Amino acid sequence: MPAMARSTVKPGAENTEMSSPDGPEQAFPIEPVEPVEPGAAPPAEAGRQRPWPLLLLKTMRPKQWTKNGVVLAAIVFAFRFRDPQAIALTAAAFILFCLLSSAVYIMNDLADREADRKHPRKRYRPLASGALNPSIAVAACAVILVGTLSLAFAINWQFGAICVLYFATQIAYSFWLKHVVIVDVLLLASGFVLRAMAGALVIDVPISPWLYVCVTLLGLFIGCSKRRHELILLSEGAGSHRKILQEYSPVLLDQMITVVTSSTVMAYAMYTFTAKNLPENHMMMVTIPFVLYGIFRYQYLIYQKNEGGAPDELLLRDRPLLVCVILWGLTAVVVLTLARIYNLPLQ
């Protein structure tokens, strides 16, 4: 999937007004992308002949596999990352979720070919541009889906059931629920929660309810930011590409983002000093600054750089955000390891 292009700011260009949830209207410069006329063909380079395996791989969107990193949360916070069997099962779960999510992406692109042709970025996708034969995509999707679910149930039936539930919710979202206001972003968040549950079930460990709350809120934050970016990017043509965008406004989404970000910080803080199996001396609280910086950095990219449409690609592209996530993970591992080495009392 091509990286989202940043809007170019021109001196004297007309600004799009955005309202701050707690103050007067604030303007930031952004040059909306002109909506594409229905039926308009992508530029010639989009149709260049490429081997179909490469086109299929692009349709599977490997850059978005970073979302499946949530599967790794259980093995880290349950302190099972020194167990070879747990590592192998978690790695298998991660790979299977990557394949399962890719099957969903292929189905989405097949169903949304016409709508994607009206989008200034998505019209370059292999199926929307006509570069990839739809019959190849259908066959690949069927093979991936059958193989992934079969392997998931072979690991254990609970993990297999979560995979089926994830696939069912994604299909419900793609064909029906993405047209229901607010429910659409809730469904986006549910995908992250199901990934966290899958990581716990595959190695048979419990996860703190607080962690589920944090994952849900983080998913909502990402979902609302994505909707906001689509609304701003497409400007007047937003409704023609995705009808649900007519139900949103920048002001509403800014309010939702404010609520979700505040709740995320509070929920994570509560997790660090109330969850079971964490050091009783509350050492895990040293990870809170990384969460704060990560949220603030993401908001900076949303409001100042007009990013947020592809959070998975943004994580890989924005070095400060990526470094923050890595440091957060390393710090959490160090805290948990020190607690076990020195036999510190756990909550």
How would you describe this structure in keywords?
347 residues, mainly alpha, Tetracycline Repressor, domain 2, 2 domains, two-stranded antiparallel sheet, 61% helix, globular
Descriptive overview:
The protein starts with 15 loop residues before the first strand and ends in a 6-residue tail after the last helix. The protein contains 14 helices and two strands. The model is unreliable at 1-36 and 43-47 (pLDDT under 50). It has 347 residues and is mostly helical. A hairpin with a 5-residue loop joins strand 1 (16-19) and strand 2 (25-28). The radius of gyration is 21 Å and the shape is globular. The chain has helices at residues 52-59, 73-77, 84-111, 113-116, 126-129, 134-155, 157-175, 183-202, 209-234, 238-241, 250-274, 288-303, 311-317, 319-341, and strands spanning 16-19, 25-28. The chain has a two-stranded antiparallel sheet.
List the helices and strands and how they pair.
Elements: E1 16-19, E2 25-28, H1 52-59, H2 73-77, H3 84-111, H4 113-116, H5 126-129, H6 134-155, H7 157-175, H8 183-202, H9 209-234, H10 238-241, H11 250-274, H12 288-303, H13 311-317, H14 319-341
Antiparallel strand pairs: 1-2
